[in-house]
Design a protein that fits this description.
Largest sheet: 5 strands, antiparallel
Distance between the termini: 58 Å
Strand content: 15-25%
Shape: globular
Length: about 600
């Protein structure tokens, strides 16, 4: 791979064609049942979890799991009757030795040969301690490796990027990461405020802006624009600008001390910068409701790239409609962002419904970049409930890796996550319809708010099993490919940039709460007809009238029958945790949303 390869995520997912799933063979080479594939294990304080790819064959009776204290055996069967599911929890005590496991399948009374042997040993870290470790290591990319002059995020590390190339979108993610770092005590709040003030000053007073938008890349000392996707891309980049503004609005809310000069400076500077973006100018044609990605003072609209969904750029239209100074009309959300016939899907993949998005959901960063700040939970428009849609995209991505139709090495229920990243041959937007065996840690980790159990298990597995090669000074390296035994040599800002905010959104919702607290956001939602699930009146707030409807739907745990006085639609909207009932857990979420 050329170390100075210029990569681009501008045209991501022109679909390469839907992968054809290959049926697993029913019998092995010796005539017996095929053993389970994709076996993996995780160690926890009280148990070891063993998982594998389900065997799809007529006559399957279940599975057996065997354990030993030695890789060479002897192994003892742990279950007394065949296991119906593709997973087993072996309860252990603190201080247990490393255990080794394999699984077998039972088909029509015949037991398969053993699967590959895997092992697990608890690493001593609780989930919170492991999340702290990963967040702090990743934070250091934006703090320790931030540019020494301007403080912005450098484009990459270890891939041949110039150390003076700084990136706007990655810096927006870095601003959120710095706020989380201050909140978690990785640095002092005062030091974090000074760094943020330095970044904002550079972006407002040193670099050139293009009708209010920022370029993709700048020189960290001089502020000179550096073309990104070819020589014609030497002007404004509206998508990168949106990722930057997402971070700017987040820190505007975080640094809220009215008696602190630096924090007051941040709020004032952030407001000026946000209000200076001429979103509506990037429509290119008068009265058009479609925004364009690039404009250059030298080459005008030569890049000619429309911003239309479904992809990572939803935040562009949300901010454009929300702008208090240069807004796009609300219709642009529907005609521009969601205006393509391919936006709405409606099909099921691996048993998960996909309301919007391409077949199999696309690369996972499409569900991350716009939603580091904009909270998709409990929200819907005429197209989808977005948190449910994003959860299903995450689970479809995982299910594809479990199915592993291309037979790539290492894929398992604990090794999944396809998104844009480097790979052994360059850079690509990996997804179920374009899979070359490359797993990107940020994909599964940043899906944590959507699929917490699955993401946490994978994070632990990647750290425990591959950490020696995959975890470095700034956290998880960009990607790895076990098919060719390749581990990335470095980091990329936009892949690092989603990890800390999305872990924090899972843990406390901090970045979501901060961004959504900006006063321009809720009116924008109402304008584009996006509502909370429990805004039964469709009036943009959640008040006593909505509470009355919710109370009529409250039925208790595991009660799936719609109560009298509650419609099926109201019952579905009141099920805020998506577990098919309306109980006290849903009431607690409602209380967070309630704003009389």
């Amino acid at each position: 791979m050329r170390s100075n390869r210029l990569y681009s995520r501008i045209t991501i997912a022109a679909a390469i064609g839907v992968c054809q799933l290959l049926a697993a063979p029913a019998f092995g080479q010796r005539g017996g049942p095929e053993p389970p594939a994709g076996v993996a294990a995780n160690g926890y304080a009280d148990r070891n979890d063993i998982v594998w790819k389900p065997v799809s064959v007529a006559g399957l009776q279940g599975y057996n799991v065997y354990r030993s204290e030695s890789e060479s055996g002897p192994f003892t069967k742990l279950n007394t009757s065949p296991l119906p599911d593709a997973g087993y929890s072996d309860l252990t005590d603190e201080g247990s030795p490393r255990y080794y496991y394999y699984a077998t399948a039972l088909v029509d009374g015949d037991e398969s040969s053993p699967s590959q042997v895997v092992s697990a040993l608890y690493n001593g870290l609780t989930d919170d301690e492991l999340l702290d470790l990963v967040q702090e290591a990743t934070f250091r990319y934006f703090w320790d490796y931030g540019h020494p002059a301007c403080g912005m995020a450098r484009e990459g590390y270890g891939f041949g990027h110039s150390s003076d190339t700084v990136t706007t979108g990655g810096t927006g993610m870095g601003l959120m990461t710095i706020a989380v770092g201050a909140q978690r005590g990785f640095v002092t709040r005062a030091d974090a405020a000074l760094r943020v003030a330095t970044i904002l000053t550079f972006l407002d007073e040193t670099v050139e802006r293009y009708h209010g938008a920022w370029a993709h890349h700048y020189h960290g000392f001089t502020g000179e624009t550096i073309p990104f996707a070819g020589y014609q891309d030497n002007g404004g980049d509206l998508v990168e600008t949106a990722f930057l503004v997402e971070g700017i609005l987040t820190v505007r809310q975080y640094f809220d001390d009215p008696n602190d000069f630096v924090e007051s400076y941040i709020r004032d500077k952030a407001t000026t910068m946000w209000e200076g973006v001429e979103w509506n100018w990037y429509r290119r044609y008068p009265n058009s409701n479609i925004l364009y990605w690039h404009w250059s003072p030298d080459y005008d609209w030569a890049m000619n790239h429309q911003i239309r969904g479904f992809n990572e750029a939803m935040i562009v239209y949300l901010l454009a409609v929300a702008s208090p100074t240069h807004p796009m009309p609300p219709e642009s959300y529907h005609e521009g962002w969601a205006g393509l016939s391919s936006y709405v899907n409606g099909n099921e993949y691996y048993g998960y419904q996909l309301w919007v998005g391409p077949p199999y959901g696309g690369p996972l960063f499409w569900t991350h970049y716009s939603h580091l700040g904009f909270d998709p939970r409990y929200k819907r428009d005429i197209y989808a409930n977005y948190s449910t849609n994003f959860r299903n995209i995450s689970l479809i991505n995982r299910a594809h890796c479990i199915e592993n139709p291309n037979g790539f090495a290492g894929y398992s229920p604990l090794v999944w996550g396809l998104t844009a990243s480097f790979n052994p041959w360059g850079y690509a937007a990996h997804c179920p319809t374009y899979d070359n065996g490359t797993i990107t840690p940020t994909a599964a980790i940043s899906a944590m708010p959507y699929a917490p159990e699955e993401s946490l298990a994978t994070l632990r597995h990647l750290y425990d099993v591959y950490g020696a090669q995959l975890f470095g000074p700034y956290g998880f390296y960009d990607a790895f490919n076990l098919e060719v035994n390749w581990f990335a040599p470095g980091y990329v800002a936009i892949d690092e940039g989603t990890i800390v905010p999305m872990i924090e959104n899972y843990r406390t919702g901090l970045c979501w709460k901060l961004f959504m607290a900006n006063p321009e956001i809720r009116p924008m939602m109402t304008a584009i007809d996006m509502y909370f699930d429990v805004d039964f009146e469709y009036d943009g707030d959640i008040d006593a009238a909505d509470f009355a409807v919710f109370a009529n739907c409250l039925a208790g745990p595991d009660v799936t029958t719609v109560p009298e006085g509650c419609t099926p639609a109201q019952f579905a909207g009141s099920d805020l945790d998506d577990d098919n009932d309306v109980d006290l857990r849903d009431a607690a979420i409602f209380q967070e949303l309630f704003a009389p």
